[in-house]
Design a protein that fits this description.
globular, homodimer, Aspartate Aminotransferase, domain 2, Aspartate Aminotransferase, domain 1, four-stranded antiparallel β-sheet, alpha/beta
């Protein structure tokens, strides 16, 4: 019994130690820390995207569902993480990782993040965040000014006003878009007379009271899937995210938008919001925001701009004009973990009108009381970390100047890559980069010839074959692990809307050189000559030959007749 | 022109450098890193909650709304953050900070967090997270097992199944509760015949199709405000969060719950979910989950348990029985940044049935394709950081054993504090701790006497006066900065539901000693003798004296008659 008590006491002591600040840097924890740093630096200096290992294999290291009874040493866990997790993670910072919007981090984010983690503030209320609260309001103010360009007096008046907010921070673009549509929905059905507002009585009674048959959000067919998700969550139903056709440049067709608005109005469907995109996820195009703002005003809808990706383009004097009209938006989504280069889990939505967020205000007795400066009363989330300090650091250490360089480098590089693709006999540029995103596919020159003259049936067939080849190349390249481009499916106008599988490239890492881009194309050509895909190529050649010979015999027949 | 080009080139070079891994630990960034570490260790070793400085003063350092044009040095920003932000933040890890659920972190979380930040994985899809995906599924599996205790075979079958999920990770309890109610709503109104489901057609058509007049969620009056927020977001309307009365122990009155269910049914209001609380935010009480599960089954509602705070009580063999019935829940919220002691921004919702999350599934062309292992198809959020690795580390380094100690220490300490309060002439325990949370208030013994015999009017008056005094003490103590307890307003049964302002204490930091608790009470007594509150005390004394003398003369009159 005495010895059992002794063991128990020892366990308790060890729990105290876990929470006690290690005094000496030579402590075990200090050593683990240093070991991790060295190992991470080594990992990050490698230019390999991922070591190929099947996910089913990797799963074996994470298959035990029991919580271990006894504690293990920190050093043991650190070693486990380095061997099994880090070694099998994706090197999103590698300059040859150009497939997704998750890019490299500026290295100063690492030591500064330590401040955030160690202080473990909770931004929901000033009692657990103090100076982080005005800091967050400042960051929101700075970005509001970047977008809406109000004057100094405006920010002096509103930035720190406890009854208003210029925006709302959150974990990312999805929650930002959801928050914007939440505001739009609540502003559309406010309290009046004997209706207490949609926030209190719900959507069923709101539509009954205001005499509508439904509520809709309009966005181009290139809209992010988070909007469908948001419509589901908000009780609108995602069939009421009305996709509007785009033109050849993947920009919304404003005439089609207006036609659809008229139809909805005649069907007594309330238009909550018209959403413009500043940087579509798949092709990086920007909608004609200026014209959309007008349509929104015409139909009494909120105008939201999803600039999760493209927002920071405003830093660039050269390319900011592409986003003309964004300043007319009622709300704008920007993802900080994308082109503001802060670590994962940070986005925000800005509201032109400081009173907009009052439509989604919530209070509680023990915190976020009315009139407090607590940020929690107007955010979708409750407890939240102090990520704002990393945006603040980015804005100061990189500066507008630095962000401009990053934006310009990315867009110019995308244009250069587009020219490389166009000059190459085996590739076809599918979407021209407007920002730093482009798509292309594998398409040998003989297929180009055939596609030019093929009838509907054969064109479709060849496009399917090219899709299989592009998909094969994309997967193989990912498995090889030296580089990564992503893939998606588009319906390009030049092929009458045939579904086409394409490579998708996002150029946001300043360390990605043209030499790296060349080697990515070279590897894709190399993969195309692999045995695994040779049957597909034979079939493609045959199909193309058939088209060519059919056309030739038609010409012969035509010349004879 | 040449020199301008030179400047431009230098700026570009400096942006390259920002993204390049520093090779030597003696680099400038290495030095900044070390400086931050030393400074943070110093800060964390101090046992002061906050340096008093008015928030309006602090705001001055965060008042500029312009984004600086030119970059500044990392060292300059680090110094700014240490001087202006860290120095003015709240020391949530101080053992005398016992006011909120944001507590100390185990120190091993710091070096391990560095891995998470440096790798910058995005858990939305395996292409940007690889091994982090099975790791997250494992963590969800482990916690699912802690709650639902299915057998090994169950977890072998479901944990890594790409078409199912045992839960959904998110930024915190609010999103977890929202996700659970979203699932409940979508399961209540599924697709059938010529209705495409509430997710597609929205709530208006869903209620029409299924013939309901509304949809409701039932929870005790102690429910967290995030449920009201969720009901607003989901289009249910927060008036349809039906608050059920609680008994003296702040637990839901099950009879009242059943009565309300019957009423709603008769009014054709669909009961989406009945929510049990395992650890109310204000008083830490646990609802009778077992009985609630039965009511939920009876009325065909989902049974959700909000165990954001209390979930980890399941680690304790001694106290786990308090949560009996949680294993019958359809979904359970747990906050990892609370009693799993991981850094801010991490919660999850677990689903008993691995198919439940299919009700909120979303897909896209370029990621989270159907059948992939991508976690993003069943989370509310899109891009998300790899916080799961920190839960994983906590579960292994602290172990079930260690978490049990932490839970037991907290609850036992709360009970000890309650006895100290009860023994003290100037304080009144308002809610007895069931878990590690309690409430009390300042109430001198003469007020206790008066309250016993006062009539309604005087009782209310005295309670208001005691409220002002308690509020004053709480604010002064926070301003002094040595310790922090929070405050809230309750309506205790012992005072016929009079609103009472109370101190609220959360005991989750193992380094909080009984000595610290004593000194917190001592300081509160000291503040009570301050000049600033002496008028209130005089008024209180007068009021109490009036009650006593009125009672005496009544007694005299009674004895005479």
């Amino acid at each position: 019994m005495a010895s059992r008590n002794k063991t128990a006491q020892a366990s308790i002591e060890s729990m105290y130690r876990v929470f006690t600040v290690p005094e000496a840097p030579q402590s075990t924890l200090g050593q683990v820390d240093e070991y991790i740093s060295r190992n991470l630096a080594g990992f990050l200096q490698e230019h390999i995207v991922a070591v190929e290992k099947d996910l089913n294999e990797v799963e074996k290291d994470f298959s035990d569902s029991t919580i271990p009874e006894k504690p293990i040493f920190v050093s043991e866990q650190a070693q486990f993480l380095l061997d099994k997790l880090v070694a099998q993670s994706v090197h999103t910072a590698a300059p040859s990782f150009i497939g997704h919007m998750t890019s490299a981090l500026p290295h100063f984010m690492l030591p500064l993040s330590k401040i955030m983690i160690a202080l473990n503030q909770n931004l929901v209320k000033t009692e657990t965040s103090k100076a982080f609260t005005p800091l967050e309001r400042q960051v929101i103010g700075m970005l509001h000014r970047l977008v809406f360009q109000e004057d100094k007096a405006f920010y002096r008046r509103w930035m720190h006003d406890p009854f208003h907010a210029l925006g709302s921070m959150c974990s990312g673009g999805t929650v930002a878009n959801l928050s914007a549509l939440w505001v739009a929905r609540n502003l559309a059905f406010p309290a009046e007379a004997n209706f207490r507002g949609v926030n209190r009585e719900g959507l069923f009674r709101a539509l009954q009271y205001y005499g509508y048959q439904g509520a809709a959000v309009l966005v181009s067919e290139r809209g992010h899937y988070s909007l469908r998700k948001a419509a589901d969550i908000l009780g609108i139903g995602h069939d009421y995210i009305i996709p509007i056709a785009t033109n050849r440049e993947n920009k919304i067709d404003v005439d089609a938008l207006r036609t659809e608005c008229i139809r909805l109005r005649s069907e007594k469907i309330k238009i909550l919001s018209i959403v413009g995109i500043a940087g579509t996820t798949e092709t990086g195009n920007v909608d004609p925001l200026d014209e959309m703002a007008e349509v929104a005003r015409e139909f009494g809808a909120q105008f939201h701009v999803d600039a999760a990706w493209g927002g920071p383009t405003l830093f660039s004097r050269k390319y900011a004009p592409i986003l003309k009209g964004i300043e007319k938006a009622d709300s704008v989504t920007i993802d900080a973990h994308k082109q503001l280069y802060v670590p994962m889990g940070c986005g925000l939505v800005l509201f032109k009108n400081p009173a907009s967020v009052n439509a989604i205000e919530h209070h509680a007795q023990y915190i976020i009381r009315k009139g407090s400066k607590d940020l929690g009363s107007t955010t979708l989330e409750g407890s939240r970390p102090g990520m704002a300090m990393l945006i603040h650091s980015g804005l100061r250490i990189i500066g507008r100047d630095g962000y401009e360089i990053l934006i310009d480098l990315g867009i110019d590089k995308a244009k250069a890559y587009a020219r490389m693709i166009e000059a190459h006999p085996n590739f076809e540029l599918i979407t021209e980069p407007e920002l730093n995103i482009l798509t292309y596919r594998y398409r040998p020159d003989y297929a180009a010839e055939a596609l030019k003259i093929a009838d509907d049936e054969h064109r479709k067939k060849i496009n399917i074959m090219l899709g299989r080849i592009t998909k094969y190349i994309q997967k193989s390249q990912r498995e090889r692990g030296k580089a990564f481009v992503s893939r998606t499916r588009l319906n390009p106008r030049q092929y009458e809307g045939d579904p086409c599988v394409v490579f998708r490239v996002v150029l946001a890492n300043p360390l990605t050189t043209e030499k790296i881009l060349t080697s990515i194309l070279d590897e894709q050509v190399e993969i195309a000559s692999e045995k695994g895909i040779s049957d597909e190529f034979q079939a493609l050649q045959k199909a193309c030959a058939r088209v060519m010979s059919a056309s030739k015999s038609q010409q012969v027949a035509a010349s004879r007749s």
